[in-house]
Design goal:
Elements: H1 3-10, E1 13-17, H2 19-25, H3 31-35, H4 38-43, H5 49-56, H6 63-74, H7 92-113, H8 123-134, E2 141-143, E3 164-165, H9 205-211, E4 214-218, H10 227-237, H11 240-245, E5 251-256, H12 259-272, H13 277-282, E6 285-290, H14 298-312
Parallel strand pairs: 1-2, 1-4, 2-3, 4-5, 5-6
Helix pairs in contact: 9-10
Length: 323
């Protein structure tokens, strides 16, 4: 076993990637990018009830919002077979056929989107370089995107193992959109559960987070639809027993776009901690760094680099971002 692996085991680290990472790189992979594209518009020409339902809610949304809409659409209410949107008569067979077409269309769109040149001056690109240079995240990179992270490897050596693709990867044709497995759905929509997808495979994200001392999250909103992945970790951080027995304070660094998305993350953290966010922040080290020009704080970013260099024991070159 090499020294990097030993170091990673001694001080477990986790790097979580959300859609904001791809967007910061310059890839047009947002929810609205897809549905406003030629491929997305063609997909939504379907006359199914599910397609019409998505179009009704097709405003300023994120991918997590789409999955929340899907959950409301298929969730069985009070033991009845009525959908959340009772004004639209549903047809499960037609809806599931459209749902499959949606997955195929998304793969086609992302295939073209990730061929675009990335912005090597972006915060995302520099953070990925820092993560790799620290050599302590090698085994625990968890990507919630469908794009292939290895396509970012332009002039840098991608030394970590293949990332864990939590929701599948379009390169392998297995994008996984859907709803949590632990909700009761209307009969006929069972295959919309992510865990029931034939391509679904478990990743060790929950135990990895629970054991981690250093956590970096980039572009993930920590939304309700993904609470099952993060709840146990944040519950642990606010546990009195853990706080009393731990030997070091966990560091959580979250990169998000602007002050508005920062507020959304804070609200999600408040909910996931059962509205005890003050305890979560008082007893752990949290830092939220905005990437938008004007909201970006170079001092925060400098301190992040210094801390990670000290934590990893690696002499990480200082990255300077001019915003």
């Amino acid at each position: 076993m090499d020294s990097i692996t030993l170091q990673s085991q001694h001080k477990p680290c986790v790097f979580v990637i959300g859609n904001g990472f791809d967007i910061d790189l310059g890839w047009k992979t947002s929810y609205n990018d897809f549905f406003n594209s030629r491929i997305g518009k063609r997909c939504l020409k379907s006359k199914t009830a599910l397609s019409r339902y998505i179009k009704i809610h097709n405003g300023d949304a994120d991918w997590c919002d789409l999955e929340m809409y899907l959950m409301k659409y298929v969730k069985r209410e009070s033991g009845s077979d009525a959908s959340y949107n009772k004004g639209i008569p549903i047809n499960a067979d037609a809806d599931m056929e459209f749902f499959q077409e949606l997955n195929y269309a998304l793969c086609d769109y992302l295939e073209s989107a990730q061929r675009e040149k990335i912005n090597e001056d972006s915060v995302a690109y520099h953070v990925l370089q820092i993560i790799l240079e620290s050599k302590c995240f090698n085994d625990n990179v968890f990507d919630f995107n469908y794009t292939d992270l290895r396509n970012v490897d332009s002039g840098m050596t991608f030394v970590c193992q293949s990332p864990y693709y939590v929701h599948g990867c379009m390169k392998e044709g297995n994008t996984i959109i859907g709803v949590p497995a632990d909700i009761e759905v209307i009969p006929g929509y069972e295959q919309m559960r992510k865990m029931f997808n034939q391509h679904y495979h478990q990743t060790p994200i929950v135990p990895a987070l629970i054991e981690a001392k250093e956590i970096v999250i980039f572009g993930h909103s920590l939304s309700e639809i993904d609470y099952p992945y993060f709840r146990a970790f944040f519950k642990k951080l606010q546990s009195d027993e853990y706080i009393q027995k731990r030997s070091e304070i966990p560091y959580v660094t979250i990169f998000t776009y602007d002050l508005s998305s920062k507020l959304r993350i804070l609200e999600n953290l408040n909910r996931i901690s059962d509205y005890q966010i003050s305890k979560l922040f008082n007893y752990n080290h949290f830092d939220i760094i905005c990437t938008k020009e004007g909201d970006f704080n170079s001092d925060q970013f400098w301190k992040f680099q210094l801390h990670l260099s000290e934590f990893s024991g690696e002499n990480i070159p200082l990255h300077v971002i001019n915003k």
